[in-house]
Amino acid sequence: MIVVDITHTCVHTMSVHSYDEPVSIKKIRNLRKNKYNDWKLCTGMHVGTHIDGPGHLTDSDLLLSDVPVNNFVGKGYLIDARNRQIDVSLLKNIPDEKDLIVLFLTGMDKKFGTEEYFSKHPVIPEDVAQGLVRRKIKMVGIDFFSPDTYPFDTHKIFFDNNIFIIENLTNLEQLVGKDFTVVALPIKTATDSALARVVAIINNT
User: What is the Cα–Cα distance from 113 to 175, expressed in whole angstroms?
Assistant: First the structure.
């Protein structure tokens, strides 16, 4: 079984948007002094690789901890959008199946940690989002900061149709031409969004 980790590592020095507080990871217990090791993590839920739920930008009271775990697992489909704009022509080869997890590869993850990553990221236009809704996908994942900018209409199109958004993925080029399953598990916190460990399992053919 080949498993590809498509998650950014959460570290103390991780780059975050100016709206977010810095991530803090500290060792708070030491084996020699305290007889055990322990760490403390302080972070917002929208840094690094994470999953946005509807309550992020709507009045939904849905918490990710209440969502059945199978909602975060599904057959994946990769859209290679490197060196081109994201438009509806990229949707033409999506299989006619429900509950796909569609991932967008742009290569923007290689700029993670730079100002450009946050200020000049690609976007998913509203007509593309509507096209994904019509295909009844369950999740969309991107290797960049956000699928849109203020007033976040693309976010809301997805949320209004119960489609979760996986942001800040990486290593998606390893999935080109592959048949794979996505496992995108948010940490089980009673929050509308959460950090996640996301992997792709390459299916044997």
Answer: 23
> Which structural domain range is residue 104 located in?
2-8+45-202
- Kindly report the backbone phi and psi dihedral angles of residue 44, in degrees, each rounded to the nearest multiple of 5, phi listed first: -80, 175
Residues of the chain with pLDDT under 70: 205
Please count the structural domains in the chain.
Answer: 1
The answer as to whether 37 is a domain residue is no
**Cβ contacts of 117-121, under 8 Å, gap ≥ 24:** 117/15, 117/144, 117/145, 118/17, 118/18, 118/145, 121/145, 121/146
Q: What pLDDT does 204 receive? A: 77
53-102 pLDDT, tens digit each: 999 999 999 999 999 999 999 999 999 999 999 999 999 999 999 999 99
CB 198 within 8 A of CB 50: no
Cα separations (Å) of 156 from 129, 150, 193? 10, 11, 14
